[in-house]
Amino acid sequence: MSFKIRVPASGHEFIAEPDETILEAALRQGIGLPYGCRNGACGKCAGEVISGKTAYDTGALRASAKQEHEAGKTLFCQACAVSDLAIEVREVVKNTDIEIKTLPCRVEKMNLLTHDVMKLQLKLPETERLQFMAGQYLEFLLKDGKRRAFSIANAPHDDEYIELHIRHVPDGHFGDYVFDGLKEKTLMRIEGPLGSYFLREDSQCPVILMGGGTGYAPLKGMLEHAFHIKLDRPVHL
Question: Quick one: pLDDT band at residue 180, thresholds 50, 70, 90?
Answer without folding.
Answer: very high
